[in-house]
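Researcher: Next sequence.
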Amino acid sequence: MWPVFKKREKFLLLDVSSQKISGFLISLDDQKKIRKEKSWENFEKRAASRSPLAAISAGKVIVSCEPELAFKIFISLSMKRENCDSPIERTELENLMAQAVSRIFNHYRREASRVLGVDELDTILANSEVSGFEIDGHKVINPLGFRPQEIRAVVKMTFTSRETFERVKSVKKNGDFFFTEKGQSQAAAVEKINSRRADFLTIGPERSYFYAGDHAGNVRARREIKWSTGALTAEIRKNWALNENAARDVYEYYANGKTSPLLKKYFGKIFFRPVKELLKQIKSIKTSVKVYVDGNIPLDLMGISTFQGLPLEGFMQKSGFAVDTAGFASDSEAFRQFASFFEFYYDSSDSEINGWLKRRLNWLGSSV
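Model: Next structure:
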């Protein structure tokens, strides 16, 4: 069930990278129109006592971390009941879920610590949610009151490092926080506009990640791919004998469509081999004929029959949102920045069942 917001309710969106924490304040009215009210480039340049966020009252603080700083895990649970003659009640469901999660929690926190590159004790559970309930193979929103023999569910846990969490708290000490990972947010938004599964690819100058979804939209496996736009700037360096910074400047000029048709054709030739390697990796892991891409790379270089840009217009049509894109360089940038809010909007972690789960998980690995 989707939340009902008051007229012009406000939300604070924080964008966390290894270099800085930026963000902006957005408003949402009862007609589902989203507007950016104010933005900040870097909160960490200011002393915490002088932070402009201290006086800001927002209904939710939505924290979107770069993939290197957060890791979201999807875990399918199967819970068997000893007595299926009686309807399942709250206490029994809470105990079943708590027992199931506690058995596997340390294993997945260990996996998250490895991915994030931090000690397990410094790996913090920042957000959790349970969804995708099934009773004896049948999908339900809430299993309470049924008499199932088996209950299945998907638990989603977002981990971050203690350092990242404390950085966020240093710029916004108090608030109702919703933590997520940026790539997962965009992948979740992409799923909302597709009747079939769609994959999502984010390409960076140093690291890239692929997100493959399942048919039900309950699980999105994240996988780092061994490719980045650095492979393209390396070709420019090799062919033009430039240093790294100059090669990046030339690539930006090309990626932004500022080259002549003749020079564009030339770049297509020298980029052929690294792009072929990227496509080979994607082909081996993609689960859909459609892959949405967030990255500073021309889609026609990859093949637009498979790869598509960020779909803000399609998302608005399907979801009913109206997004004011004033203040954004492009629709793609607006989609990228608002994706964490879209994920929060459709998130069910404020439901009663998720309230139980959060209380049980607090003692396992949460810092809040």
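Model: The mean pLDDT is 87. The chain is about 35% helix and 25% strand.
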